[in-house]
Amino acid sequence: MANIKSQKKRILTNEKARLRNNTIKSDLKTSIRKVNQAVEASNVEAATEALRTASRKLDKAVSKGVLHKKNAANKKSGLAARVNKLSA
């Protein structure tokens, strides 16, 4: 454990942020998995709806600093390509 007061505070806040980030990442993985399952089941409506929610959650993760914006953009474009391929 650190001796400096500000460092003790940083340790506590970093732990809170780490836990928050893990929940956001877990939620993201779940929403991305739902898109993939809908695509594999060839369900166009469910896939587009799941894509909409996944895109929203990816954008939210970027705004919270959990993901880099280009990482989220790559994930979104890959998911959108799979959904569009299904509907075409």
UniProtKB/TrEMBL annotation:
Family: Belongs to the bacterial ribosomal protein bS20 family.
Pfam family, one: Ribosomal_S20p
Any GO BP: translation
Gene name tied to this protein: rpsT
GO MF, any single term: small ribosomal subunit rRNA binding
GO CC field: cytosol; small ribosomal subunit
NCBIfam families per the UniProt record, alphabetical: S20
Protein known as: Small ribosomal subunit protein bS20
Primary role: Binds directly to 16S ribosomal RNA.
Coiled-coil segments on the chain, per record: 2-64
Keywords: Coiled coil, Ribonucleoprotein, Ribosomal protein, RNA-binding, rRNA-binding
Organism the protein comes from: Rothia terrae
Source taxon at top rank: Bacteria
